Amino acid sequence: MRSRPQLDSFRRVSSTLIKFRRKGGFRSGVSLGEAMANTRLSGNDSYTFHELNVDPRGRIILKVRWSGYTSMTYEIPVDGYEGRVQLQTLARRIARAIVHFLQANMIPISWDRVILYHLEEISIGVWQPVLATS
User: What is the DSSP string of 48-112?
Assistant: First the structure.
């Protein structure tokens, strides 16, 4: 029997990046404020449940990290239709989790200054948001 090759710490589990961009927008990423306001996203149904490694309960794990603070983990429900993920709803739920993280850690930054660019899968079904400030 063949064993699975070990992953080194520099290689992502999946090459799938879940990208966020406003519909008709020129820049990539959406602010947390835009995501929570349900802004329409480009490619709203581009990803499948299988690509996100959604668990049997219809959830993914989100691990939020910010330099200098303790990371926090959230269970995010994933909605969709015909096997396709509703990216707009997922972005809103991720933004809410990130806002909770910012508030819980008392990070003094406006939500509109935090940009959600994409999600990277760090282990099967566990995703980490790539964030920046503007």
Answer: BTTTTT--TTSEEEEEE--TTS--EEEEEE--EETTEE-HHHHHHHHHHHHHHHHHHTT----GG
Tokens coding 18: 């879940």
Cβ proximity of 44 and 80 under 8 Å = no
With a CB cutoff of 8 Å and minimum separation 6, the contacts of 24 are 42
State how far the Cα of 112 lies from the Cα of 30, in Å rounded to an integer. Answer: 9
Q: What are the tens digits of pLDDT across the range 48-105? A: 999 999 999 999 999 999 999 999 999 999 998 888 999 999 999 999 999 999 999 9
The three-point CA angle 26-13-95 to 5° equals 45
Rounded Cα gap, residues 12 and 31, in angstroms: 25
Backbone angles phi, psi at 8, to 5 degrees: -85, 165
